[in-house]
Write a structure and sequence with these properties.
Layout: H1 2-10, H2 23-30, H3 34-46, E1 50-53, E2 56-59, H4 64-74, H5 78-102, H6 105-123, H7 127-145, H8 148-162, H9 169-174, H10 178-195, H11 198-233
Antiparallel strand pairs: 1-2
Helix pairs in contact: 1-3, 5-7, 5-10, 5-11, 6-7, 6-10, 7-8, 7-10, 10-11
Length: 240
């Protein structure tokens, strides 16, 4: 049973941070005894894959100890942002291509549902929900690539993205015209994956990352210009 649960974690079926069903309920569903399930939990806790506490048993955030110090180191550094997008472009293109080639019917259905959620958030002009759907869509593409190494690494990076480690997503979505373009780019990726068109999926992913990076750089340059202008306005504070 430990091997079975470990396989589900490896394949991304059970995700870091998710709470497992209560012991009695899970034992009944799996048709095993509670002592056998408890033994499996102990084995997986020893391997750092599960954590137990008063509120239940959870899939461990096993990459967090690696990425959290890295997040502090990387936060708000322009050079790092450029390197992040360079890395992400390589991975997104590969993920989109593999997803178009390997996605199952269930993968395609999940991507379709995420597209619909993203479009609804866009119509409601809700940048928070739209931004969450953005990250979720990319995660679904990683899952549909059926490459477990790619999935776990990019899932950890997605958590950093949600926390605005590399750039402020709210600023991106509030910039004039950007939301519409991002929506079309995401839909292009999703539709190509669903259609099984690897070439179009790859091209759409590359275009999306390029556009996002260029827009983030524009926002950064505008911010620097504003800081310079404000410094000129307040220069009298430094003069006799």
């Amino acid at each position: 049973m430990a091997a079975h649960i470990e396989k589900l974690i490896l394949e991304g079926v059970l995700r870091p941070g998710e709470r497992l069903a209560p012991e009695r309920e899970l034992a009944e569903k799996l048709q095993i005894s509670r002592p056998s399930l408890r033994e499996a939990f102990e084995i997986l806790e020893g391997r750092g894959l599960l954590v137990s506490g008063r509120s239940g048993t959870f899939v461990a955030q096993f990459l967090t100890p690696l990425f959290q110090p890295l997040a502090t180191l990387l936060h708000d550094k322009p050079r790092v942002t450029a390197d992040y997008f360079e890395f992400r472009r390589i991975q997104e293109v590969n993920a989109a291509r593999f997803a178009a080639m390997r996605a199952t019917d269930l993968d395609r259905k999940a991507i379709q549902q995420c597209m619909e959620r993203m479009q609804k958030a866009h119509r409601l002009e809700d940048p928070t929900q739209e931004g969450d759907a953005d990250v979720d869509l990319h995660l679904l593409v990683y899952e549909a690539s059926h490459n477990v190494v790619l999935l776990h690494i990019m899932r950890a990076l997605a958590n950093l993205l949600r926390n605005d480690i590399f750039y402020n997503r709210a600023q991106l979505y509030l910039r004039e015209g950007v939301r519409n373009q991002l929506l079309e780019q995401h839909l292009a990726i999703a539709r190509a994956v669903i259609a099984g068109n690897a070439k179009d999926a790859e091209a759409a992913a590359a275009q999306h990352i390029r556009f996002t990076f260029e827009t983030v750089e524009e926002i950064r340059r505008d911010s620097l210009r504003l800081e310079t202008s404000l410094s000129r306005v307040n220069r009298s504070d430094f003069l006799a």
